[in-house]
Amino acid sequence: MANYTILRIEKRKLNAVTRICNHHERLKEQYKSNPDIDSERTHLNYHLYEPKERYRAAVLGRIEEAGAKRRKDSVVLQDSIVTASPDWINNLSQQEQREFFERAYDFFTKTFGEENMISAVVHMDETNPHMHVCFVPITKDNRLSSKDIIGGPRGLVKLQDDFYSHMHERFPDLSRGLSRKITQRKHIPTEFYKNADNLMSHYEEIVNAINDIGVFRNGEKREAAITLLGRYAPEMAQMNRQLKMTDNYVTRLENAITDYKKSNANKNDIIYDQREEIEQLKDKVSELNFNQRKLQRVIDKIPPDVMEQMKKDERARRRSEREER
Q1: From 79, 217, 222, 247, which residue has the greatest number of CB atoms within 10 Å?
Q2: 0.90 exceeded by the pTM?
């Protein structure tokens, strides 16, 4: 199996910068959106470029320094993440991991200019080591332009190629990761998997409670069933939206596999590895999709008014519980 170097870049407008800062710099007390964060290991995180101030101030300061014009809807920050195939990067020594991220950061400074860097922080407190690199898209002639800095879809493909070449020179066992053009993939949030796994682990309990609601029109047993279901109501209420996303995702991956087979009739090891990665990704998401469908069929049996009330009651209970801590 090939080992891939991974680079993703997202455009951020000014209203998102503070949120990005709080997450990357671990300024929040809790991270419910990402339960993979282990706060006991956060001290292992380190910077290759430490921000001189909060991101918003640093971004606005760099734009002012460059004398660039900014519109209300301008992209003011490029938010990047760098990592590699989990098995490969987790098997590196700490020194080798640091060399990997240092070489990646070197690519950013050479490509986008060190004067535009806002932060480069390596996170060691999640499942796989990765680095967030944030920079302001200021051109060489001091314009604020994400489009000119990245170059649109074609520019992004070239950027991925250049990044791979830069990393492969030092780490020759790395392969070029599949481009989004090939996989058409969008990130499936970790919370989707955790949500489905949690509800599936209580599947029989949930089914029995739903049946009790239908059988007992009133009385203590019906109230007990509603109370039990209420513990899972916010997560159950999200299932339909999450299911639609994975439905679309599986379809896109199936189409990508079909197109990939047609356009790569002459197979070689690299092509085989790339197609296999898409198929493994499809299998993983298909399993999630199957569990979501199974859960949704059960959730659909809950009367909408009961679901809405349970959701509100449980959110109020969780909010009160947080305030008491």
Answers
A1: 79
A2: no
Q: How far apart are CA 307 and CA 301, in angstroms?
A: 10
Question: Do 139 and 149 touch, CB atoms closer than 8 A?
Answer: yes
Q: Which residues of the chain are under the pLDDT cut of 50? A: 32-33, 182-185, 265-271
Looking at residue 229, its pLDDT comes to: 87
Contacts of 264 (CB under 8 A, 6+ apart): 271, 275
Q: Report the relative pairing of strands 3-13 and 174-176 from DSSP bridges.
A: parallel
State how far the Cα of 51 lies from the Cα of 278, in Å rounded to an integer.
37
Q: Which residues contact 13 (CB under 8 A, 6 or more apart)?
A: 73, 74, 75, 76, 77
How does pLDDT run across 270-312, given as a tens digit for each residue? 445 556 667 777 888 888 999 999 999 989 988 888 888 888 8
Longest CA span, the chain: 74
